[in-house]
Amino acid sequence: MIDRRQIEGAVAAVAGPRATVRVEGDRVGVVVDATGLDPQARDALEASVRAAASVPGAEVRVVMTAERATRRLIAVASGKGGVGKSTVAANLAIALSRMGRRTGLVDADIYGPSQPRLMSAEGERPTARDGKLDPVPTPYGVPMLSMGQLVEPGRAIAWRGPMTAGALGQLVDADWGATDTLVVDLPPGTGDVQLTMIQKHRPAGAVIVSTPQDLALIDATRAIDLFAKAGVPVIGLVENMSGYACPHCGEVSDPFGRGGAEAEAQRLGLPFLGRVPLLIAIRTASDAGRPPASDPADPVFAPIAEHVAAWLADH
Ligand SMILES: Nc1ncnc2c1ncn2[C@@H]1O[C@H](COP(=O)(O)OP(=O)(O)OP(=O)(O)O)[C@@H](O)[C@H]1O
Q1: How far apart are the CA of 201 and the centre of ligand 1, in A?
Q2: ipTM over 0.95
Q3: Is 269 annotated in some ligand binding site?
Q4: Is 83 labelled a binding residue?
Q5: Running DSSP on this structure, what letter comes out for residue 294?
Q6: pTM for the predicted model, two decimal places
Q7: Could you report the per-residue pLDDT of 63-92, keeping only the tens digit for each?
Q8: How far is the CA of 87 from the centre of ligand 1 (A)?
Q9: Going from the N-terminus, what domains does the chain have, and what CATH number goes with each?
Q10: Contacts for 70 with CB less than 8 Å, ≥ 6 apart
């Protein structure tokens, strides 16, 4: 049984009269009035309210009211293709949203826009109002826009730099309403889209995804370098496809090695945000448009999102 008074006391100690607590079953909802706070103070307050409201067995949701002046972008990048960047971006966005952040998702991967499928929004076309795109809703509470929604499905995108930059601008500067956090799934590598993203849209930070393998890590190091040179902080590294548990015998093997990204993060003095195991269930759920982070019991992406939210609160 959750003790509402105890939570109210703990929340009032950090947020004073700004916060209102509601408890329903094992769900704790806290609405916080963030009027007049700058983004950093707002994120710091959100983090301390969340900590104060967290009691064992409770699912906590913190909602910050009042429109914030600036929307913060989190770039999800990788040096190499196929390492699971889109999977991590979709699940990170959902996990952040489950934590109460108003999160949107931009699929800037012009070479393989996969978010409409991952987010179960295939075939949805965004409408435009006053020259601005309206993001499409998804079943996971995360509105999204994808390069894939701007072109005919299945058509290879062979755009030149300026067209790509224009399309990225349309996605990022769409009518995101009260969305306060935009997760941006970048194409792999260090090309035009990444440069435009960094120079024009100034992400608050970047999450780098790599497999534990040397080759992928070398490419990841290049991507890290690009952000570092442009003065965009790297929030940390995620190791994907780390360790494979055989669904039949349970034996754990390491097709791509294990721990490589964590060791690399340590070497570079960057935070390690967590590892995502190589699981058939992740691929089948992703293909079916049911991202694993939408499961309330998700043990993998929620802790990664906690790290990212804590970083945002501090920066
Ligand atoms: N941890 C995992 N376990 C099992 N399958 C995974 C995992 N991560 C990603 N996959 C699968 O690997 C494939 C590639 O993943 P994803 O599209 O996320 O990679 P990407 O780095 O975004 O690729 P691209 O370079 O094409 O943008 C997908 O089929 C996805 O479902």
Answers
A1: 26
A2: yes
A3: no
A4: yes
A5: G
A6: 0.79
A7: 887 654 478 999 999 988 899 999 999 999
A8: 6
A9: 4-65 (3.30.300.130), 72-314 (3.40.50.300)
A10: 39
